[in-house]
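Lab channel / #folding
Pinned by the channel admin:
"Please post every new chain as: sequence first, then the structure tokens as a reply. Keep commentary short and put observations after the output so the thread stays searchable."

First post following the new format, from NK:
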Amino acid sequence: MTTIFTHTLGFPRIGTNRELKKAQEKYWSNKFTKEQLFTEGKKIRINNWKKQAELGIDLIPVGDFSWYDHVLNTTMLLGNIPERFKKDSHTIDIDTIFKIAKGYQSKRKHVIPSEMKKWFNTNYHYIVPEFTKNSSFTYSWKQLIEEVDEAIALDFNVKPVILGPISYLWLGKEKEENFHRLDLLTKILHVYKEIISELEKRKITWIQIEEPILTLDLSEKWLNAFKFSYEFIKSSKKILLTTYFGNVYHNIETIKELPVQGLHVDITNKNCNINSLCNNIPKKWLLSLGIINGRNIWKTNLNSAINTINLIKKNKNNICIGTSCSLIHVPIDLSVENKISKTEKSWLSFALEKCHELFLLKTALITSNHSLLKKWSKPVLSRIKLNQNKKREKEIETFQTNKFYKYKKSPYSIRSLEQKKHLKLPILPITTIGSFPQTESVRKLRLDFKLKNISSNDYEEKIKENIKKIILFQESLNIDVLVHGEVERNDMVEYFGEQLNGFLITSNGWVQSYGSRCVKPPIIISDISRSKPMTIKWMKYAQSLTKKPIKGMLTGPVTILCWSFIRDDIKKSQVAYQLALALQDEVLDLEKIGINIIQIDEPALREGLPLRKQSWKNYLNWATESFRLTYYKTKNETQIHTHMCYCEFNDIIEAIIKLDVDVITLETSRSDIKLLKLFQKHKYSNEIGPGFYDIHSSTIPTIESIQSTLETALKYISINRLWVNPDCGLKTRNWKEIQQSLENIVTATKNVRKKFQKI
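Reply from TO:
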């Protein structure tokens, strides 16, 4: 009988106290040397390996650490550096990573960073690989091998982690026409072969090669590329073909023919056809069972998990157990949470606890003693029983049956006329997306209030001072639609989680979103409702300071859902409707105090899309219905905005139309303003604000570049429907950067207004 071993697919690289974020930001601000940055990274890696080994993980992932994101790691590994980042330096080093991710100002011009997208249906981001006909690839970035040697020297049982060649190509983008990125496959495979040859010289058994796109609906062309690729790179070491986030059985005919020695599947997915997989993959293959959910924070019902494993063992004896995916999607350590009740804590499992769950399962499988599993799983059952609320379930069912959410406002053509008459905005109205810089003093103010170092009266007065500063600043620039700056908010989702019933907020539950950007997702533990207004006080005060319209700022139901750790005992759609009903109360209260522009952000609408197309329709139906439920009772003159981040808009354009908002603002500065072609093609008639300032970069856009982009946008969107704005909130930027950037936006817009008024 084969000994069962445990492994994780990856571990959070940010450090328990966000040490990586702090080191990166010190390096970017010249407060850290390169050597100090490297030292901090090494400390985090070694600490991660030690923690996993101490908790009983047998195979330790190496190569899961990255300085920005793991797809960009692969870009560096393959030497796939876009030409514009080579012009000022012939050296490929860590600064190349940050230039590609953030852009930079060269002596000649602003070098635009590579595009950023969401990693499948998560809130993690990756830098999109770029491909041209003449793209060259070379093994020039040795970080993976260096880390493998580092871990072996410390006597860890190492499992190298690499993003697979087909998924890497899939995740990228052609930057020229008339060629397909799969045309570059052989070039890339030569580098993969070289890397694997280097790994073969090391003391390792398994290589984890990740091909997450095998959970998607793939064309024959992409599926055919798998057989060719894995024949090309096959190794003397064992290759664990690794998939996650969904079922792969629909692609089993391709998978079972690959020259690999093992397959990892996510069996936390309810649609996983595990028995069919067992019957179809080669008997000699190792089947790695992703039994511990790497995407949510609930403690695993280990009683149920071991029953599942034992059923699988009847068909497949050669198995190992692991996390469903990398643990980068969950916080690191539950033990540091000292403000959560003992009962609530007993329901949760973070990265370290998930490693312990694997150890408990392995021990029970070896000894056949399940007593520890029963003890661990007892709180899981009590939580589910506690959450049962027949009254709330009936309320949602009644709501869905009566279809209240399908009641529509007047058509946009009528609403827009009433809004223009009421708001009296100029052509090309200028606004921002919502947040202003979250300076150290602002963060300290919120922390002091949280720690009760200052009174609520003092806190409110300081918040008002900041709001006043932001309003006067916008007025001085002659911005048309103002925002209050969100200085009272720590995060666009966490803030509402703190205000609504049904949420649990952690103290240190940080998760990486991209680069140094970390978020602290709230946990939805029970039914959601609003017991008091959440934004009214601040919006009312902001509007009292100016005659210009203030934009009310809310986060939409789908985004709060996607960016929280959600309940696993009811359907997502039910939670979305609960959120929508709570937000509807806030929207109507904003309207009552005279806020006639309300932005309900849904940057996660595309992110929530299921991986399989067969499930898209159902998701988009309840997602758009829950969004419309938030605002359908408002008056025609109340203008509804929404904001969306980088995504594949092609996939959701029909849903965007269905949202029927008056104004949609988009992150487009990194992708291409020609995204507006898509809206033109679909005859989108409502108003649009594409991003004219990349807030993810410290580079200040020039008046000329903004004006040129504006004039390009006007080829696709009429001047009466085009808004001017940055492509996202300004919280991560500093005041000096935004002042110059916004001044340039206003000047460029005024130039274009004059130009078109003369025509």
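NK: The longest strand covers residues 286-292.
TO: also worth noting, The radius of gyration is 26 Å.
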